[in-house]
Structure formats: C-alpha cells, structure tokens
Amino acid sequence: MRERLVAGNWKMHGSLAGNPALIEAIKAGAARQAGVECAICVPFPYLAQAAGLLQGTEVALGAQNASEHAQGAFTGEVSAAMLADFGCRYVLVGHSERRQLYGEGDGQVAGKFAAVLAAGMTPVLCVGETLEERDAGRTEATVARQLDAVLAKSGRGAFATAVVAYEPVWAIGTGRTASPGEAQAVHAFLRQRVLAETRILYGGSVKPGNAEALFAQRDVDGGLIGGAALVAADFLAILAAAARRKE
Ligand code: PEP
Questions:
Q1: Whole-model pTM?
Q2: Which of 5-9, 23-27, 59-63, 242-246 has the lowest mean pLDDT?
Q3: Among 244, 172, 182, CA closest to 219
Q4: Nearest CA to ligand 1 atom 1
Q5: Long-range Cβ contact pairs of 133-136 (< 8 A, separation 24 or more)
Q6: 24 touches 53 (CB < 8 A)
Q7: Which amino acids bring their CB within 6 angstroms of ligand 1?
Q8: What is the pLDDT at residue 34?
Q9: Nearest C-alpha to atom 2 of ligand 1 is from which residue?
Q10: Which atom of ligand 1 is nearest to the CA of 225?
Q11: Which 8-state DSSP code applies to residue 67?
Q12: Given 208, 229, 234, 247, which residue has the most CB atoms within 10 angstroms?
C-alpha cells in the first residue's frame, strides 16, 4: 500500500514572526491523522526555524528547489547537500513556477532530481501541462516528456522512493481544479511509466471542499498544496480528507 502524502508548498510566503503559529497548528493537527505523511516545504531562510520547530514530530521538512550543481561559483544557488544539512526530507523539483518564470528546462530539472537523490533526500518531481497544451490534446505528451527526461538520467528505480506531483499549470493558484476523473486519467498514464509503489500527488487549487473527491481516485496518493497550505485549518482539513480515503 502506498502511504499517502500531503505536502504544503509555502512558495514565497511566511515570516520569522508568523511561522511558529502556523507550524505549531500543523504539528498538533497532523499528529491526529494516522496513515498520512505530512510535509511542509518552506522558503530557504526559514529551514532552520522550521527544522527546530518540527524536531521530534512526524511532520517532514521540505524545500522548494535545489541546484543541480554540488558546489561552486553559482551565486544565489543552494545545493542539495545544504538542504540535507538542515534535515530536509523532501525537495520539490521542476515546479511549474520554476519552469515558467525561471526557464528551467527538462534537462536542468533532471539534474536537480539527481542531485537531490544523491544527497539522500526525496525529490518531488512536478509535471504538468499548460492550458494551451491541454486544449491541443498534448497533456500526455507533455507530462511524458517531462518525466522521461528524469527517467533517462536517474532510471525507473529512482521512483521506488521519489515522488511525482501532477500539477496542471492551469489549475495552480487559479481556483480551477482538474476534475477527479481528469486527474485520475493523467495519474494512471504516469503510473505506467514509473512504479506501482511510486506516490503520485495531485496539485492545483486543492481545497478542503474538493480534496476528498480527488484523493478517492485510485492513483491519487495525496496532494501538493499551495495556497491552502498557508491556512492551518484548510491544510489540516485536506490532511483529514487524505486520512479518510478508503483503500
Ligand atoms: C502549488 O504551488 O504547487 C500549488 C498546487 O498551488 P495551489 O494549491 O495554490 O494551486
């Protein structure tokens, strides 16, 4: 059985003064949800603070990006080994905002994925099509291309531990969600390319009101949550929806 995972992506939100209240609320609520792993992916400057607050709890720490390089003259970059130093378990790679706003290509994303694995952490590979690609009938071709670049570099076996997050770009931060059936269809397609045990998360405007129907799908193993991860009650309600999923 694949353990469900609900991971919050804080994006560029948070503050030193405000983070403890959110993290304490998540810690308290997450402890009550058996069978679901919970993670929060915080901005780099808050890793030390979050690591301290999460110490001794089951809530995992994650980061939102890592360099594909091990070290060197890469001003402004953060290596995977540095993230491991802070106790990160998960690192997002290839989030659509990185691909779209910072021009990260499939080859670079594959390099980041390999670097995260080499540093002993679990990459969460984000894939997803734009609205234009969906409308042109290119959803499967797009996610296959994004995934295949990683498979070519790290191999299928890497997905014994690595996580995939299907995030249709048109659903991220837009309030528009893929229907449960649309999500399941893409997850089933991705599943054929990875492993039976690979966790495949859905992301894109997941809210307390739509989480249960999405998580009820056979190949949806949890969620990557953006906006709703910043509101403790919403994030915990999504976690509870994952815990209610029947096998
Ligand atoms: C995300 O940032 O990965 C995401 C899914 O955002 P939102 O839930 O806000 O759409």
A1: 0.97
A2: 242-246
A3: 182
A4: 226
A5: 134/168, 134/170
A6: yes
A7: 9, 11, 167, 172-173, 203-206, 224-228
A8: 84
A9: 226
A10: 8
A11: -
A12: 229
Task: Assign a CATH topology to domain 6-166+178-195+213-231.
Answer: TIM Barrel (3.20.20)
Distance 55 CA to ligand 1 centre (A): 26
Count of residues making up the chain? 247
Contact 118, 102 (CB under 8 A): no
Residue 55 CB-density burial (10 A; 0-12 exposed, 13-18 middle, 19+ buried) = exposed
Q: pLDDT grade, residue 33 (50/70/90)?
A: confident
CB 120 within 8 Å of CB 135: no
Q: Residue 174 CA: which ligand 1 atom is closest? A: 10
Distance 149 CA to ligand 1 centre (A): 23
Give residue-wise pLDDT tens across range 81-95. Answer: 999 999 999 999 999
Distance 207 CA to ligand 1 centre (A): 10
**Is pLDDT at 121 greater than 80 in this prediction?**
yes
Task: State the pLDDT at residue 246.
Answer: 65
Annotated active-site positions, please? 95, 167
